[in-house]
Design goal:
alpha/beta, Elongation Factor Tu (Ef-tu), domain 3, 14 strands
Length: 309
């Protein structure tokens, strides 16, 4: 997938260009409908599909105290979108200049950069421009003036309720992975980079990958059966998300993953961890021997859970 860092870079792509625009946190089932529609439109005209998102979240810039905890970082979104077949991702910097831009000016900049602009697809409730003054009606009017198609995609509903990033955050917060997976149209996952740890797991016979996490919305602390995507391979394992009470007891949450039948050196590698089932709460043990015995039991339970999932 090719990543663009400015609207002006759209001029490098063969037209007609069809954009799907939104923040797309989580890349959930509703977002996937918006993206799929833009791809269909591009295919009909032998054009190019571009998914456009923003960095950071607009509320992180405008009202930091109201910004949501993100389900996916920009890098994580890009990985998920690439698996969906997206070939081009435009990351638009959200700053003071963009926040003050009138809706028509924002769209004019996109149209002027494309060779040509074939269409823009958004969710029906999408709002844009200064004070969120632009909406689908605004976009449609600008499309008629400038010769591009404007498409608004109706919300996707599951269980009689609209799919939203907010619903997914709530499900994840309470460890309801079944609901989260249904709304996401994929298993809930987090992305992290493998960093050096204290090597305690290796000394206990259970080498672990310690991850620096990019996601902000995390499930409850505890021990989980997981599957991890590492260098293109999906591997089973068991993970602890918590404060390491037996070893050091930190306030920050850490994710440590033990991959079954795997012992390669993977420092610096990205790992996407998919949460399958919660096995137990995190507890403090009186000795490392007790901890080792519990990890053995956790690993057995995780293998069983993953075989059934």
């Amino acid at each position: 997938m090719k990543t663009l860092g400015a609207i002006s870079e759209l001029s490098s792509l063969p037209g007609p260009v069809h954009l799907a625009i939104g923040f797309f946190d989580g890349v959930h089932a509703g977002h996937q409908e918006v993206i799929a529609h833009a791809r269909r439109c591009a295919a009909e005209q032998d054009g190019t599909t571009v998914v456009a998102t923003f960095e950071p979240h607009p509320l992180r810039f405008l009202r930091p105290g109201s910004a949501p905890r993100l389900l996916t970082s920009t890098r994580h979104k890009a990985m998920i979108m690439e698996r969906l077949g997206v070939g081009h991702l435009l990351i638009i910097p959200f700053d003071a200049a963009l926040a003050a831009q009138e809706p028509a000016v924002f769209i004019d900049g996109i149209a002027a950069s494309c060779r040509p602009l074939g269409g823009i697809t958004v969710g029906k409730s999408w709002a844009f421009g200064k004070d969120r003054a632009g909406n689908l009606a605004t976009l449609s009017a600008l499309g008629r003036e400038q010769g591009f198609a404007a498409h608004g995609i109706a919300p996707v509903s599951v269980g009689g309720e609209v799919v939203s990033s907010t619903r997914i955050r709530t499900a994840v917060e309470f460890g309801d992975f079944e609901t989260a997976a249904t709304l996401l149209a994929r298993e809930y996952s987090v992305l992290g980079n493998v960093e050096h740890g204290r090597q305690l797991g290796r000394r206990l016979g259970f080498p672990t990958a310690n991850l620096t996490l990019e996601n902000e919305q995390l499930p409850p602390i505890g021990v989980y059966a997981v599957r991890a995507m590492l260098d293109g391979h999906l591997l089973p394992g068991v993970a602890n998300l918590g404060h390491r009470p037996t070893v050091e007891g930190t306030s920050e949450r850490h994710l440590e993953v033990h991959l079954f039948d795997f012992d390669a050196i993977i420092y610096g590698h990205d790992m996407e961890v998919r949460f399958i089932q919660r096995l137990r709460e995190e507890v403090r043990f009186e000795s490392l021997d007790e901890l080792k015995a519990q990890i053995t039991r956790d690993s057995q339970r995780a293998r069983q859970a993953l075989a059934m999932a």
